[in-house]
Amino acid sequence: MHQKFTTLEKITFAEFDKRINKEAKEKLKRRVANNPDAKLKIKISQRKLFWIHLIKNGNLTCPVTGKNVAYCGYDRADYKKGPSSFHYNFYSEDGDLFTIDHRLPKSQGGANSIDNVQPMIAEENWAKSNNLIFL
To answer: Considering the entire predicted model, what is its pTM?
Structure first.
C-alpha cells in the first residue's frame, strides 16, 4: 500500500514555483543566521527541481496514459507513528497522482538528471518498476 495524501490546497504551477523559491530563501536565511561565516547556497530538493523543469518545458503528459498534470496539491501525509508531513504533489484532472519516472531506470545505469525524467501516473510508475518503456 502506497502513501495516501490529503490535499489541503490546490495551487497553480506558478504558485508552486513561487512558494518553492520563497521557502528555499527562508531556509537559507535561517542557515546563515546560525552560521554567518559560512558560504551557503539556496537548496531546493531534486524532486522539486525536476517538477520545475517539467513545468517550464511543458512536459506534463504521462507517456502511458496520455493524461496531463492539471494541478499541484499542497498535501498532508498522516502516519500511524510520528508526525504528519507536508508535500507538493501533482495530479491529473480526475485526481490521479503523478510521480517522477526515470526513463532509463537508475538500477540500469540511468542518471538521476533532468534529461532522464518524465511525469508518470503513480500507479503506472509502480507497475513499470525498473522496466524500460520506449515511447
So the answer is: 0.84
